[in-house]
Amino acid sequence: MKSHVFTFRSKVYFECNPGFKLVGDKYRQCQANQTWSGRAPTCKPIDCGRLSTPHKVLIVSETGHTRFGGYVKYRCKEKSYELIGSETRVCQNDEQWSGVEPSCQIINCGNPDTPANVKQVNITNGFNYGSSVEFACEANYTLEGSKIITCGETKEWSSSAPSCLGELYGHKPFDPFSLVFSLSLFSHLLNKLHDKRIQMLTFTRNLSFSSMFRPW
């Protein structure tokens, strides 16, 4: 009751304590016949009603009642699923449960990034929890990192996608034509060196022979 004045035409307003709702007139007015209008209201406990339990959702804890302040806490039954919606719902003063109804959907890590020259060669169970992705390199590249990664319950892959290293990263891919050219060049240089050595020996011998007949 909000008013303490009880003269003619005065009004007395009513409200309930938290957790209760008013049933009846919100106010009563003093009339000329010295009576109050309407009837005395009552306060009824707020009750939000029973909540249903969605598929694959498990109730972890609850107050055991659906009145004001009561709560229900949820999680998914299987660890391969994640909870979508409200983890906890509370009965409010407006007789409505807070939040939204939860649901459980399978964990999905999404398609992992695939760097240049890397390809996915084997995928199991899409990109869902427990699935794996196997990688390989394009021709003439070398794999560096995890060949196989797995989707975990935190919605993250066990590791990042590998990279494939080639010429630009200091690992020059094998080229048989380059090898033949290199060997030919090496052989050519050896021959040139051999010729130079023969020329030097010939020059030295000629020089020694000439000095023997030089007049003093």
Task: Provide a descriptive summary of the structure in words.
The protein has one helix at 176-212, and strands spanning 11-13, 20-23, 27-29, 42-45, 57-62, 71-76, 81-84, 88-90, 103-106, 118-123, 132-137, 142-144, 148-150, 163-165. Residues 209-214 have low confidence and may be disordered. The chain has 1 helix and 14 strands, in the order ββββββββββββββα. The protein is of the alpha+beta class and 216 residues long.
Which features does this protein show?
disordered C terminus, three-stranded antiparallel β-sheet, 17% helix, 216 residues, 14 strands, alpha+beta
At a glance:
By secondary structure, the protein is of the alpha+beta class. The chain has one helix spanning 176-212; strands at 11-13, 20-23, 27-29, 42-45, 57-62, 71-76, 81-84, 88-90, 103-106, 118-123, 132-137, 142-144, 148-150, 163-165. A hairpin with an 8-residue loop joins β5 (57-62) and β6.
Topology record:
Elements: E1 11-13, E2 20-23, E3 27-29, E4 42-45, E5 57-62, E6 71-76, E7 81-84, E8 88-90, E9 103-106, E10 118-123, E11 132-137, E12 142-144, E13 148-150, E14 163-165, H1 176-212
Antiparallel strand pairs: 1-3, 2-4, 5-6, 6-8, 7-9, 10-11, 11-13, 12-14
